TrEMBL record:
<feature type="active site">
    <location>
        <position position="80"/>
    </location>
</feature>
<feature type="signal peptide">
    <location>
        <begin position="1"/>
        <end position="17"/>
    </location>
</feature>
<dbReference type="InterPro" id="IPR018188">
    <property type="entry name" value="RNase_T2_His_AS_1"/>
</dbReference>
<dbReference type="GO" id="GO:0005576">
    <property type="term" value="C:extracellular region"/>
</dbReference>
<dbReference type="InterPro" id="IPR033697">
    <property type="entry name" value="Ribonuclease_T2_eukaryotic"/>
</dbReference>
<comment type="function">
    <text>Rnase which modulates cell survival under stress conditions. Released from the vacuole to the cytoplasm during stress to promote tRNA and rRNA cleavage and to activate separately a downstream pathway that promotes cell death. Involved in cell size, vacuolar morphology and growth at high temperatures and high salt concentration.</text>
</comment>
<dbReference type="Pfam" id="PF25488">
    <property type="entry name" value="RNaseT2L_C"/>
</dbReference>
<keyword id="KW-1015">Disulfide bond</keyword>
<feature type="active site">
    <location>
        <position position="138"/>
    </location>
</feature>
<feature type="compositionally biased region" description="Low complexity">
    <location>
        <begin position="260"/>
        <end position="282"/>
    </location>
</feature>
<dbReference type="GO" id="GO:0005775">
    <property type="term" value="C:vacuolar lumen"/>
</dbReference>
<dbReference type="InterPro" id="IPR001568">
    <property type="entry name" value="RNase_T2-like"/>
</dbReference>
<keyword id="KW-0540">Nuclease</keyword>
<dbReference type="InterPro" id="IPR036430">
    <property type="entry name" value="RNase_T2-like_sf"/>
</dbReference>
<dbReference type="GO" id="GO:0016787">
    <property type="term" value="F:hydrolase activity"/>
</dbReference>
<keyword id="KW-0456">Lyase</keyword>
<feature type="active site">
    <location>
        <position position="142"/>
    </location>
</feature>
Length: 402
């Protein structure tokens, strides 16, 4: 009882300490209560495993700090996955090969989860640039072992792969609650080529910020991975993740731990999704969503009227080549007039070009990839997109094949 009170108290602390929680509802609803037993804490056998995660009720949200080569934004850890360990820390893998879905990027974008996909392209990235294979591996290896995501638990009529869409949405939401980089930085622990840290410096800083002790893994004395542990009330789709202290230590030594910087800047290193509708890398897709990239993060993108929003992104039709093309949306022609971008029935087409930047294909108007707005969108608040840099919020627009 005391333990439970303590947990709920600390959990409130964790929620408050977390700067950005993306309020994004799952497309699926499990219909499960979140007031039932907490996974790994039941005292009798629970028969409905659609609403109670078992045997994998000890959930690990794993994050990478990859510096060789550097992967992802320089000021953020990246997602490895969400793993369902048994309550005793043993685990199962590859539980249902019949649901080892491929084409995760397309599955997400065609099921209303383009915002999740855009976030993954920046923050759930493979060290060799094979994002699609990495995502497929994480789903098939770990996701298919989650009892609350088996097909028979889903609402009837759910599309094939709906549970995988829910898995990726949940992992992204959970990761957004766990800003490891920021928590360390708040305690004065920032990447360095010269400093080393003790394990207790790192874990006590993270415990002070988050309320819980994670496990830290090292490779040759260099910090490389973190495991944040949870139990779950309800379903992976929409249940409550209850943070807990790591039940076992990671592989880091007790002292002399290096936390080296990633190369580059906090600007994004997104990789576009592998798509069946694009040709060679860098070629212009005919159908695309357009994502806004700002300070290393992907924040929403363009709606069909051409405004910047964090709502579900519009699909644009592109005609031409990367050196000159026009765009339309469901609302009509897209164009720039008087320095602002819009799409609609009264808009005249203007020509755009696309510029490769790293692995992104950026939209350019008049040869410039700079776009700007008066604010950052959230919820139903959207902003007009202007060309140039005259307004308060600068960003670039990345063309992602859909
Ligand atoms: C908790 O529920 C799971 C799933 O039904 C079961 O395997 C396990 O034995 C239960 N634990 C206890 C202590 O009854």
């Amino acid at each position: 009882m005391l333990f439970e009170l303590l947990l709920s108290h600390i959990f409130v602390g964790l929620a408050l300490a977390t700067p950005q929680i993306f309020q994004r509802s799952s497309l699926l609803s499990s219909g499960c209560s979140t007031t039932g037993p907490q996974s790994c804490h039941n005292t009798t056998v629970v028969s409905d495993l659609c609403c109670f995660e078992a045997p994998g009720g000890l959930l690990l949200q794993t994050q990478f700090w990859d510096t060789n080569p550097s992967t992802g934004p320089s000021n953020s850890w990246t997602i490895h996955g969400l793993w369902p360990d048994h309550c005793d820390t043993t685990f199962s893998q590859n539980c249902d090969p019949s649901r080892a879905y491929t084409g995760i990027g397309n599955l997400l974008s065609s099921n209303g989860a383009s915002d999740t996909l855009a976030f993954m392209q920046t923050n759930w990235v493979d060290i060799n640039g094979q994002n699609e294979q990495f995502w497929e591996h994480e789903w098939s290896t770990h996701g298919t072992c989650m009892s609350t995501l088996v097909r028979s638990c889903l609402p009837s009529g759910s599309v094939t792969g709906a549970e995988a869409v829910a898995f990726f949405q949940t992992v992204v939401r959970l990761f957004q609650r766990l800003p490891t980089y920021t928590w360390l930085a708040n305690a004065g622990i920032t990447p360095s080529t010269t400093r080393t840290f003790t394990l207790s410096q790192l874990t006590s800083a993270l415990k002070a910020q988050s309320g819980f002790t994670p496990a830290l893994d090292c490779s040759s004395g260099t910090l490389n991975q973190i495991e944040w542990y949870f139990n779950l009330k309800g379903s992976i789709i929409d249940g409550t993740f209850v943070p807990i202290d790591a039940p076992k230590a990671g592989s880091c030594p007790s002292s002399g731990i290096r936390y080296p910087p990633k190369s580059g800047s906090p600007t994004t290193t997104t990789t576009p999704p592998t798509s069946t509708t694009t040709g060679a890398p860098g070629s212009l897709p005919t159908k695309a969503t357009i994502h806004a990239l700002q300070s290393g993060s992907s924040i929403g993108g363009l709606l069909s009227l051409g405004t910047w929003s964090t709502q579900t992104l519009a699909t644009f039709t592109l005609s031409g080549t990367t050196s000159s093309f026009t765009m339309t949306s469901s609302k009509g022609n897209c164009g720039v007039s008087g320095g602002s971008f819009a799409c609609g029935s009264g808009v005249s087409l203007t020509s755009f070009s696309a510029v490769s930047s790293g692995s992104n294909l950026l939209l350019a108007s008049g040869g410039s990839t700079a776009f700007t707005s008066d604010g950052v969108p959230s919820g139903t608040t959207v902003f007009t997109v202007f060309t140039g840099s005259a307004h308060a919020q600068d960003y670039t627009l990345s063309i992602v094949a859909s």
